[in-house]
């Protein structure tokens, strides 16, 4: 069975300069990917300021709509006028979910959203985790270990698929030691292209911040989705891959 996976930091619905609100365009782009499981970061769950401006603030409900019947939103950053966090959209039933606090400093509220998804016709579950990590390396090092311990605590059977995707902020490519070396995962774009995908900044991508790490899944294709013709909807570009589940 094949699965399509998308990871995208939507920057709370705004473009790089926070001047234009592109949430509908982002939804159209996500929908056009025909992804089965979508990992989104910086999703607004509630905002009084957005309401005052007439903008959609419950973004997770708007993005899920009728395309993905199952979704899980977990707030990471809570403030006086609302909150934002990570979101997983799924075409298949989410059996359980958990949000792990990855915050290492007072300025960055980070989290790891872990879901167990049932894949029909395969008699298998797939574990997926949506992540948004720190800007500074010293914080990310701590978070790598927290994620590793959480994955190991799940006691996932050796044959079950695992996906960890999101905004790693790993511009210096240091997370490979943990995710590839210690957790035995492989990164989708790197597997097919021999290098990490440059996804940031969207207008002139230079940094490899976004990743889709896999285990027990075969990569069939991986790409950065086509850039919008006239505008870059977010400050990140979406990262996409198609994988295959071994049904044996």
Q: Which features would summarize this protein structure in a list?
A:
single chain; 248 residues; alpha+beta; Deoxyribonuclease I, Chain A; 6-stranded mixed beta sheet; 12 strands; 37% strand
Written overview of the protein:
The chain has 248 residues and is of the alpha+beta class. The chain has one domain (2-244): Deoxyribonuclease I, Chain A, CATH 3.60.10. Helices cover 21% and strands 37% of the residues. The protein is built from six helices and twelve strands. The protein has helices spanning 23-32, 48-52, 59-64, 137-153, 176-182, 188-193, and strands spanning 2-9, 37-47, 70-79, 82-90, 94-101, 111-119, 124-132, 162-167, 186-187, 210-215, 218-224, 239-244. It has a six-stranded mixed beta sheet. A six-stranded mixed beta sheet has the order 5-6-7-8-10-9. Strand 7 (124-132), helix 4 and strand 8 (162-167) form a beta-alpha-beta unit. It starts with a strand and ends with a strand. The model has no long low-confidence stretch (mean pLDDT 92).
In short:
The protein is of the alpha+beta class. Helices cover 21% and strands 37% of the residues.
